[in-house]
């Protein structure tokens, strides 16, 4: 029987593996600058040449970007599943807005469920911070714009995805972040116009969702997320119907002339 020699693993490969895990787990985010090589080498307890070799391998894989004299960054392209032109195209189509809400209905319910089961104390702190920022946008004295409110709403749902400790869910939500943010901004304008009580309803729904996750009530968290997206779907469907009725009325008022 032949026994092959056991090859010692290169230290750079171990560093690569650790940095890749940090990217997958969300500890390193798209566009984030890594600490200086000296600092990072000290944190890992490795030599700078080994660290430099690992970084070069990650650059070759497209996971990191190395800028001459500017440091090393996690690739921005990891954070976007959709290009800006596609975002603009989707933004202008009502059926795309509907489809995104259907997608969110399934995805975010599962995120909430797993977040309630798996969130660590650090996850709960991040979630609480995102929740408080969102709630401050709803305050009567708030001067937050709809864009700021939409960004805060999207960040709250992203924090739930991070707390789920499911890498696929996390990176799917991350990849959709810009689209999600724009979708929220578009939605709230129409919802507030149609139903004055919408702001209060969203405050309550987010509070119920937050509390269910913090209190580790997984089934309740899933149900809260589902009710929240369901409410948004219902209100926006009503708005589309109202717009269609108005359009029909205008066409009757101004018929085509032969």
TrEMBL record:
GO molecular function, one term: DNA-binding transcription factor activity
SUPFAM superfamilies: GntR ligand-binding domain-like, Winged helix' DNA-binding domain
Top-level taxonomic group: Bacteria
PROSITE patterns hit by this protein: HTH_GNTR
Spans traversing the lipid bilayer: none
Domain HTH gntR-type: 9-77
Gene3D superfamilies: GntR ligand-binding domain-like, Winged helix-like DNA-binding domain superfamily/Winged helix DNA-binding domain
KW DNA-binding (keyword) present: yes
Keywords linked to the UniProt accession: DNA-binding, Repressor, Transcription, Transcription regulation
Cited function: Transcriptional repressor for the pyruvate dehydrogenase complex genes aceEF and lpd.
PANTHER family: PYRUVATE DEHYDROGENASE COMPLEX REPRESSOR, TRANSCRIPTIONAL REGULATOR, GNTR FAMILY
Protein name per Swiss-Prot or TrEMBL: Pyruvate dehydrogenase complex repressor
Organism in which the protein naturally occurs: Halopseudomonas phragmitis
């Amino acid at each position: 029987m032949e026994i092959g020699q056991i090859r010692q693993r290169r230290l750079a490969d171990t560093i690569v593996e650790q940095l890749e895990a940090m990217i997958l787990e969300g500890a390193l985010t798209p566009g984030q600058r890594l600490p200086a090589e000296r600092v990072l080498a000290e944190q890992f307890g490795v030599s700078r040449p080994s660290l430099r070799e690992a970084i070069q391998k990650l650059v070759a894989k497209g996971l990191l970007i190395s800028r001459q004299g500017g440091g090393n960054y996690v690739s921005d392209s990891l954070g976007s599943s959709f290009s800006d032109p596609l975002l603009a195209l989707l933004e202008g189509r009502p059926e795309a807005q509907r489809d995104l809400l259907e997608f969110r209905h399934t995805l975010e319910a599962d995120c909430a469920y797993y977040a309630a089961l798996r969130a660590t104390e650090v996850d709960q702190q991040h979630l609480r911070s995102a929740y408080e920022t969102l709630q401050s946008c709803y305050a009567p004295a708030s001067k937050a714009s709809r864009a700021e409110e939409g960004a805060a709403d999207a960040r709250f749902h992203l924090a739930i995805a991070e707390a789920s400790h499911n890498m696929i869910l996390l990176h799917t939500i991350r990849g959709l972040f810009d689209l999600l943010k724009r979708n929220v901004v578009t939605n709230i304008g129409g919802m507030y116009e149609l139903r004055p009580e919408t702001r209060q309803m969203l405050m309550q729904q987010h509070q119920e969702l937050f509390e269910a996750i913090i209190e580790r009530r997984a089934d309740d968290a899933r149900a809260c997320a589902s009710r929240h997206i369901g409410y948004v779907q219902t209100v926006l469907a009503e708005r589309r119907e109202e717009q269609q009725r108005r359009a029909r009325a205008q066409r009757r008022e101004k018929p085509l002339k032969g």
